[in-house]
Amino acid sequence: MTASPRARRSRSRISRMPLAGVAALGLLALSACGSGDDAGGGGGEGGGLDVVASFYPMEFLAERIGGDHVSVSTLTEPGVEPHDLDLSPRETARLSEADLVVYLRGLQPAVDEAVEQSGVAHVAEATSFTTLETHGDEVDGEEHAEDEHAEDEHAEDEHAEEGHAEEGDGHDHEGGDPHIWLDPVRYAEVAQGVGEALAEADPDNAADYERNAEQLVGELQALDDEFAAGLADVPNRTFITTHAAFGYLAERYELREEAITGLDPESEPSAARMRDLQEIAREDGVTTVFFETLVSDETARTLADDLGLETAVLDPVEGITDDSPGADYLEVMRANLAALQQALGAR
To answer: Among 53, 125, 333, 341, which residue is least crowded by beta carbons within 10 Å?
Structure first.
């Protein structure tokens, strides 16, 4: 993790990378649909901008900033773990027919490939609007050697992991940790970029997009303030979670995330990693092991049972379902704050 995370709570705008610029083909309009409708984009029938989002955090931005001017569909259905998304030919075709695609490179390899091949005229790629860091290197699942904390062995593990990624496992995350939406400050930067992309795709409504983006950025700044105040004085700073999704959140608020698995939630932890977590939990006074709503909680509950710890949900907000602790991004993030405060001993 990089030093001085609070010093990086900058809210200044950042430059947006140029959007993909090939001319849109004259395609037949698709019938209108809501989020998650597999029928495709919805811009045609209602006359609004047809926006395809890769998964929920991108969908949330497009809907909030686009407002009544857009019809948003998502490639990742509610309840589907987004890391392992596969696209059907029909879903891939939706990208070339969209007015704008909003996605996050490095999280869903199938989407990355489909966007590159689509020729869509307007693209908002989330990581181009902010900065990326590296998190989760201390966890590489079954790749870990038993003496993984030795410096020379750690270097060998990193080399082995890179080689494994090059073989095509689809989860190399070589550009850095993609979970930027779990940092409200970075997510606000992405919101500004999405607003600019919407304005470029639909200049007639640019003023509305700018206003909506600024309103959402204000809400995200307020959320950042709530997290900063709520976690400033917690007596414990370490939390254990299922996979390394919360590195940016931990960095922002000077916490220490210890994950059972790395950036890929489907990887299996090594026996050495589980022993490490048991030691960390005892030394740091960890009270709670967090699990998620879209991946199995079996390993988290096993670790908690072995140590006599509590379990609770810390939601990476990768999708909203009936099991989510809130109805949208802001509600789920505030539920996460409350869960962290309780686990870390806030008074």
So the answer is: 341
Query: What's the pLDDT tens digit per position in 187-225?
Result: 999 999 999 999 999 999 999 999 999 999 999 999 999
CA nearest neighbour of 188 among 288, 60, 72: 60
271 phi/psi in degrees, rounded to 5:
-60, -35
Mean pLDDT of 86-105: 94
| 235/346 Cα distance (integer angstroms) | 7
Distance of alpha carbon 308 from alpha carbon 64, whole angstroms: 42
Q: What per-residue confidence (pLDDT) applies to 262?
A: 81
Mean of per-residue pLDDT scores for the chain: 81
Please give the distance of CA 115 from its chain centroid, rounded to a whole number.
18
Q: Are 247 and 177 in contact (CB under 8 A)?
A: yes
Q: In what order do the strands lie in the sheet with 123-125?
A: 70-74, 49-53, 100-103, 123-125
Q: What is the pLDDT of residue 83?
A: 86
d(CA 92, CA 182): 27
Chain position carrying tokens 């607003």: 195
Region 38-43: what's the mean pLDDT?
A: 37
Q: Calculate mean pLDDT across residues 255-260.
A: 95
